[in-house]
Amino acid sequence: MPYDPQKHHRRSIRLKGYNYTQPGAYFITICTKGRQCLFGNVVQGEMQLNTLGYIAFNCWQTIPDHFPHIALDTFIIMPNHIHGILIIIDNSVGSLHCYPFNQNIEYNIGKFGKPLRDSISTVIGSYKSVVSKRINIIWQTHGQSIWQRNFYELIGREEKSINNIREYIVNNPRRWADDPENPRHNSDIQDYLFNIPF
User: Per residue in 124-178, pLDDT tens?
Assistant: First the structure.
């Protein structure tokens, strides 16, 4: 089944019994709280990061420094969400590769309960925490999470599907006007965390 962001991005569920520490490619989407555009703006189809956007960008790039079993693939910081592919690598053989892709894609929403140390949930929880802390320092707030509680996750098991996702990520700014995360499509959201001029 081909990747359809309208269908698969929002209505996914966590896979029961799936081991989220096993090697593979994981397509992650993390949204800001209330879908507020905190990270910049899209100008003529190009993402223009502001200071908060650079915090989100730089922290994403350092994920492998804190989690050596994670390799980064394609990612983008959008005004109010992040799309990125994280690859859990197979450390058991001392090489940087993931298990072979096979057959299909599985969808789920990552949730925090008792996450395993090397799981995708732990990686994303750590990322969200450090970005929130750094932004709270700038805004002189305390303990304010800038994120929605959960994150969307798609487990890639077929190279063609992963390539489609990479293309979707790269082209996301050009499709911003039609993006379901664009505040224009969510006019009921009015509670803003910070007074960002975008």
Answer: 999 999 999 999 999 888 888 899 988 887 777 678 889 999 999 999 999 999 8
Please name the residues in contact with 110: beta carbons below 8 A apart, sequence gap of 6 or more: 14, 20, 28, 120, 121, 124, 150, 151, 152, 153
Q: How far apart are CA 25 and CA 159, in angstroms?
A: 10
Alpha-carbon span 11 to 60, nearest angstrom? 25
Backbone angles phi, psi at 94, to 5 degrees: 70, 25
The whole model's pTM is what? 0.77
Q: Which amino acid is at 139?
A: W
- Residue 49: phi and psi, rounded to 5, are -75, 140
Cβ-based neighbours of 179, under 8 Å, separated by 6 or more: 78, 172, 185
Q: Contact 88/24 with Cβ under 8 angstroms?
A: yes
Contact 159, 98 (CB under 8 A): no
CA angle 174, 165, 146 (to 5 degrees): 70
Count Cα neighbours of 3 within 13 Å in the Cβ-side half-sphere: 23
Q: How far is CA 169 from CA 55, 105, 121, 192, in A?
A: 19, 17, 21, 26
